[in-house]
Amino acid sequence: MNLDDVLKAALDGDEDAFRIVFRDLHPRLVRYLRAFVGPDAEDVVAETWSQIARDHRSFSGDYDKFRGWASVIARNRAIDLLRRRGRRPEDLVPAEEMVDLAGNDRVTAAAFDRITTDDAIAVIATLPQPMAQAVMLRVIIGLDAKEAGRVLGKSPGAVRTAAYRGLRELAGRLENVSGAVEGERRRECSVERRTLEDSA
């Protein structure tokens, strides 16, 4: 059974199907929101699922559209929280402006291979908001540029550009960190070798 069929069954009240949808989407939403509201992500996701449960009858579409719809709800709940805190996120970007990810970009792939998901989210959160949101929706939630654009209210081209720039920025930062770690490791090896030579 594919996810479109599972979603249809879930929306028709099948609890087992809902569990499958929840297990797939919940962790993605938590990671997406962690970049914007930090430790409050779980609370915002709980509010998101509450609204999904309340409004699911108004939804129509396939599983990709459902992920986009859920992302819009999550984003709106996050914005509400930030407003309540008295901080408004800067330059929230519609998903249409997100850039399609460069599928064969070895630098970006290598950079992400070196870090854990939590580390990646923490680093993504330091990007300017348009880039961070584009990267999170494209990479963490898994939306295509069109759906991400709907979430953010931007064109698919703008989303592709923001995501691409964000990924390049992350790759550059990770290259710098990797170079610093390698330099430190070389220094430690050199000190160890001198210590061994001195003691011989």
Detailed description of the structure:
- With 200 residues, the protein is mostly helical.
- The protein is built from 9 helices and no strands.
- Helix 3 crosses helix 4 and helix 7 packs across helix 9.
- The chain is globular, with a radius of gyration of 20 Å.
**Residue windows where pLDDT falls under 50 for at least 5 positions:** 88-105
Extended strand count: 0
Q: What would the principal axes of the Cα set say about the shape?
A: globular
Question: From the alpha-carbon coordinates, what is the Rg to the nearest angstrom?
Answer: 20 Å
Percent helix, as a range, is over 70%
Helix/strand-derived category reads: mainly alpha
Taken in chain order, the helices and strands follow as HHHHHHHHH
Give the distance, in angstroms, between the N- and C-terminal Cα atoms.
Answer: 68 Å
Topology:
Elements: H1 3-11, H2 15-37, H3 41-55, H4 63-84, H5 106-113, H6 117-124, H7 129-141, H8 145-152, H9 156-199
Keywords:
200 residues; mainly alpha; 9 helices
Short description:
This protein has about 200 residues and is mostly helical. The protein has helices at about 5-10, 15-35, 40-55, 65-85, 105-115, 115-125, 130-140, 145-150, 155-200. About 75% of the residues lie in helices and about 0% in strands.
